[in-house]
Amino acid sequence: MPIDAAGSALRELHAWLLECHSDTVDADRLLALRAEIERLATDHIPGAVIELGCYQGATALWMRAVLDITGQRDRPVHVYDSFQGLPEPGPRDPDLFPPGFLRAAPEQVLALHDRWGCTPPAIHPGWFADTLPGQLPEQVALAYLDGDYYNTIRTCLAACVPRLAPGGILIIDDYADPEINPKAWNGLPGVKAACDDYFGSPSPLQVLFGDGDLAFGRYIAPGNR
Ligand SMILES: C[S@@+](CC[C@H](N)C(=O)[O-])C[C@H]1O[C@@H](n2cnc3c(N)ncnc32)[C@H](O)[C@@H]1O
Predict the structure, then answer these.
(1) Cis? peptide before 202, omega within 30° of 0
(2) Does the C-beta of 151 come closer than 6 Å to ligand 1?
(3) Distance from C-alpha of 9 to C-alpha of 61, rounded to nearest angstrom
(4) What pTM, to 2 d.p., does this model score?
(5) Cα 57 to averaged position of ligand 1 atoms, centre (Å)
(6) φ/ψ of residue 165, rounded to 5
(7) From ligand 1's centre to the CA of 112, what distance in Å?
(8) Measuring from atom 6 of ligand 1, which residue has the nearest CA?
(9) pLDDT (tens digit, 9 = 90+) per residue, 141-156?
């Protein structure tokens, strides 16, 4: 079904994602990402939207749909994933998931977009260390990092922060700072550790809040906002 400007299809997609993709998507995440994507249009931030760690494509589909109803049909979406699931956790990561957990296939991303009549993203399969150096768009308006582990997030930050447009937005999932937001889910502390080590102190990251246990960090590239 095509996503149209009326927004009713977007509401339907929202409900469907919460019902069928609740393993990686929740209402706080969808709302926060929608607000950031709307901001790209109002602030005229140039560049692509990218997701590093797309799994089955649920969030990529949401971002595409929001872009489409906010007059940003021409803005490309690129997604990246090993499609082999998570790697081994490193020493800064908890032993929560076995290697290979969250394995998906590019065909699932395509099928999800097809089901909702949305333009599919450009899909870049492979480990981030191999794909990001040569396959990122020249300019990135919004990067959504959802790679779970310390080494992965370090790799993502090193590759994509230099590509952010002035005013470009980086959203880091699982970034929890219990001192600022005690409600945030803090199951993957390697994510914040990677951000702290990359950005140094004082951290330029802002903590985003939701109604539930949202753990989102936001970095805005210096520039025209
Ligand atoms: C939590 S899932 C992403 C969920 C997705 N963002 C969503 O909202 O539906 C994490 C994904 O990151 C991928 N991943 C983790 N580390 C990676 C790495 N170093 N290189 C490539 N992909 C990686 C995994 O394969 C997995 O699909």
Answers:
(1) yes
(2) no
(3) 13
(4) 0.96
(5) 10
(6) -65, 160
(7) 17
(8) 54
(9) 999 999 999 999 999 9
